Prior knowledge:
Blueprint: E1 16-17, E2 20-28, H1 34-48, H2 54-59, E3 61-69, E4 74-81, H3 85-96, H4 98-105, H5 120-129, E5 131-132, H6 146-164, H7 169-172, H8 178-185
Antiparallel strand pairs: 1-2, 2-4, 2-5, 3-4
Helix pairs in contact: 1-4, 3-5
Amino acid sequence: MQNNVTLSKKSGKGSSHGVSSELTAFFHIRPGHTEELVAAIQRFKETAQPKDKSVFEKVGLRTQRHVIFDNGTRVMWSTAFDTDWDPYIDDAIEIFGAASWIDWMQHTVEYPGGMENASNAQIKQLLQSVQEQATAFFDAFPNHTLSQIKKALLVNRAFEQVLDDPAAAPSLQQPALKPLLEQAAD
């Protein structure tokens, strides 16, 4: 069976599909820390969802999730991104703050303790130590970065405004616009 996923250095240990890469890390939850971990993950989520969404384009963040499983004994952190592994993790640690990462990772067995002032390199090393490469990884838009997708949506919204403007009707009759109008009709 052939895997169509492209493996590359681009995504560290993870798999790639087009411009998108994945990172999946598995941790064991310290006994009795599940509720504290859930609260810390919620704080991390709030930090990772800033009001200024342009931060996602800077890091190339496509998706991110935490999943607690095995009856509250394990947690998975999974993410997909456009950029290379090193700048993605470096930017994510800088933007969300090292303390946000330590806040949730301290509730895992793999957290060695004493990392309250951890460097990016130490946090990256911890993440890579528990990272597993996806057996299969698929992205619905493998050839388009988050920035390209966002721009296409903005152009579409602007074009819809033009279509809704009665003053644009004469200009829209130009033959050169026919392919664009056909796309808009779908």
